[in-house]
Amino acid sequence: MTGLTRRGFIAATLASGAVRAVPQLAKAPPARRILTLVYDKAAGAMRAVERVVH
């Protein structure tokens, strides 16, 4: 891993989510995207879980 801090990980996750969401917002009906950070015991690190709620 690249040694990201928690703050850097959150910033990178939100930035990548924004890049994917912007084109979809223009053509898709309104939906909520919920991003949750969870601790993955197997990986020993935090990971992002994204859900789309219509």
Automatic annotation (TrEMBL):
InterPro entries: TAT_signal. It comes from the Bacteria. PROSITE patterns: TAT (PS51318). This is Tat pathway signal protein.
